[in-house]
Design a protein that fits this description.
It is a single chain. This protein is mainly α. It has a single domain, classed as Four Helix Bundle (Hemerythrin (Met), subunit A) (Up-down Bundle), CATH 1.20.120. The chain is built from six helices and no strands. Helix 1 packs antiparallel against helix 6 and helix 4 crosses helix 6. It starts with 5 loop residues before the first helix and ends in a 12-residue tail after the last helix. The mean pLDDT is 77. Keywords: Membrane, Transmembrane, Transmembrane helix. It comes from Bosea rubneri. This is Methyl-accepting chemotaxis protein.
C-alpha cells in the first residue's frame, strides 16, 4: 500500500480539522437555535400572562363602574353609564385577545372562562341599557345581584390562576434557556480546546515523522560517510608508505 507523503498528510489534517470544526459549529448553532426557541416560548408566556392580568383588571374596573350613585344628577349618571359602556368594550377586547392566544391545554383546563366573560359582558350591557332606559336606581339594583358578584370573583380567580401558571412556565423556560446556553458555551470551549490540542499533537507528530527523524538519519548518514572516507584515506596512505621505517597511523 502506498504511503502518504507530507503534503497529503497535511491536506488530510486540515480536512479533518475542517470537518471537526464544521460539526462543532453545527452543534453550537443547533444549541443556540434551541435557546432562542425557549426564549420565544418564555416571552410568549409572559405576553399571555400580561393579557390575563389586563383582562382581570378591566373586569374589576367595569364591575366597580357599574356601582354608580343612584342619587347623582342626570348628567353624572349619564357620564357613569357612558364610562361603563366604554369599559365593557375594553373587557370584550381583552377577552378576545386572551382567548384567541391561549394554548389548547389552558382552554381545556378552564373551559368555562370564555362563557363567564361573555356572561359578564352581556350583564354589564344590560345595566347600561337599564340605566339609560329606566333609571340609575334600577341599574344599581341589577348590578348588585349576588350572581353577578360571584361571576366577577370567578373570572378574576381563573385569570389569576392562568397568569400565575404562565408566569411559572415562563420562569422555568428562562431557566432552561440559561442552562442550555451555558452548555453551548462549554461545548464551544471544549471543541476549541480539543482542536487546538489535537492540531498541536498532530503537527508535532508530522514534524517528528517528516522533519526531525529524517534530519537525524541524514546527519547519521553524513557522519558514517565521513568516517568511511577517513578510513579509506588511512588505508591508501598506509599502502603508499609501507617502505617507511614506521607504519602510518590514521585516526579521527
Amino acid at each position: 500500500m502506498r504511503r502518504f507523503g507530507l503534503t497529503a498528510k497535511i491536506t488530510l489534517l486540515f480536512a479533518l480539522f475542517g470537518i471537526a470544526a464544521a460539526l462543532g459549529l453545527a452543534s453550537a448553532l443547533g444549541g443556540l437555535a434551541s435557546v432562542h426557541q425557549i426564549d420565544r416560548e418564555a416571552f410568549s408566556g409572559l405576553q399571555l400572562a400580561n393579557r390575563a392580568s389586563l383582562l382581570s383588571s378591566r373586569v374589576a374596573q367595569a364591575s366597580l363602574l357599574s356601582r354608580f350613585d343612584d342619587g347623582a344628577g342626570p348628567k353624572q349618571v349619564e357620564e357613569a353609564i357612558d364610562g361603563l359602556d366604554a369599559a365593557v368594550e375594553l373587557v370584550d377586547a381583552a377577552r378576545a385577545s386572551l382567548i384567541s392566544a391561549l394554548p389548547p391545554a389552558l382552554l381545556q383546563a378552564h373551559p368555562t372562562l370564555d362563557a363567564r366573560i361573555r356572561t359578564f359582558i352581556d350583564f354589564q350591557r344590560d345595566i347600561v341599557d337599564i340605566g339609560r332606559r329606566v333609571s340609575a336606581k334600577a341599574a344599581l339594583i341589577e348590578a348588585t345581584a349576588d350572581a353577578a358578584r360571584d361571576n366577577v370573583r370567578e373570572i378574576i380567580s381563573v385569570t389569576a390562576t392562568i397568569r400565575d401558571d404562565l408566569d411559572r412556565q415562563a420562569g422555568q423556560a428562562a431557566s432552561r434557556a440559561e442552562a442550555l446556553a451555558q452548555q453551548v458555551r462549554q461545548r464551544v470551549i471544549l471543541i476549541a480546546v480539543g482542536l487546538l490540542l489535537g492540531g498541536g499533537a498532530l503537527a508535532i507528530a508530522l514534524l517528528r515523522a517528516h522533519l526531525t527523524r529524517p534530519l537525524r538519519e541524514l546527519m547519521a548518514a553524513i557522519e558514517a560517510t565521513m568516517a568511511s572516507d577517513e578510513t579509506s584515506k588511512c588505508r591508501i596512505g598506509a599502502g603508499a608508505t609501507r617502505s617507511a621505517s614506521s607504519p602510518a597511523r590514521c585516526g579521527r
